[in-house]
Amino acid sequence: MNRKLILSIISVLLIIGGFIGYRYYQNIFGEIVEKNGAIYIRSNDNIGDVKKELIEFIGDKNNFFWLAEKKKYGKPKAGKYMLTKGMSLNDVINLLRSGNQTPIKLSFNNQDTLEKFSGRIAEQIEADSTTILNTFKDSLFLAENKFTEASVLGICIPNTYEIYWNTSAEKFRSRMLKEYNRFWNNNRLEKAKVLKMTPNEVMALASIVYKETPKAVEQPRVAGLYLNRIKKGIPLQADPTIIYILKQQFGQDFEVKRVLYKDLKIESPYNTYLHYGVPPSLIAMPDITSIDAVLNYERHDYLYMCVNIDKFGYHAFASSLKQHNRNAAKYQRWLNKQGINR
């Protein structure tokens, strides 16, 4: 009787132990991640912060801390980590402990100012916009690389880059400088030399070209027009530079649909109605097509252009002032008819 009782107790204990063991095994090695997704671990996060990030994917599993301690995972490595449905808790901790994060595809296009650019980047990496902005404005960096606060935006070539989410502001800046130097290869530098322009001057002109027209098909023609004016010693008289000045004075949200005659008299080194040649630096972030449009400009004899109201989005070009005045008068009549006064 006693023997049967002992065997029964042993059997029950084995069943209970097996059940508990199975539960632990399932919790550790069984499929626990409920969906695909990414978690973001910040540089100052602790193990508790990691647990909070994981709750959405694994629920409130109490054995996370226990297994993390057993696997000596106590100091989180920052980054973006991709979780896939069906992963075990053991898989998750191994991934986080290894620091094998997934890079992101960081992209940006034509940001008008360094402030807007910093905000755009801060939406995609860990660093905040203020830190990014201050990093690009660092006086030592600017001096070492011969940039100014006005021209440093030029090192940011619009594109898509593979980068780690927790990349610091300083490392991101270094990456942009590296990409800038790579962009300005011998071929582009030689073309700039033929134009008797520095990369900074090409970027400045390209930014005007882009602001005149984002259409890649027309950019080489616009670039050729401005280069014709430079060769002939005629001021660029580019309205985008006047708009740039107005936004500098009244804020980036200041809307300018029409440049007024009085605006052309504003004293500024960026006023291309008063000063010859390209402005001291770019007025916005040009895209690659507009930069290459300057370097590979269209050869023609155009010196003037204005909005083509018969084909909006494009320009009416002219070689003579007489023809341009006709085109401009047509455009002015259209503006008056639309009631556009500013």
Could you explain how this protein is built, in words?
This protein has helices at residues 2-29, 47-58, 64-70, 89-98, 114-122, 129-136, 139-144, 169-183, 186-194, 199-212, 219-231, 239-250, 288-295, 321-338, and strands at 37-41, 79-83, 104-108, 159-163, 304-307, 315-318. The chain folds into three domains: 28-98, Dna Ligase, domain 1 (2-Layer Sandwich), CATH 3.30.1490; 104-183, no CATH class; 186-338, no CATH class. It is elongated and about 120 Å long. It is built from 14 helices and six strands. A two-stranded antiparallel sheet has the order 1-2. The protein has a two-stranded antiparallel sheet with strand order 3-4. The protein is mostly helical and 342 residues long. The termini are far apart. Helix 5 (114-122) crosses helix 6 (129-136), helix 10 (199-212) packs across helix 13 and helix 11 crosses helix 13 (288-295). The model has no long low-confidence stretch (mean pLDDT 91).
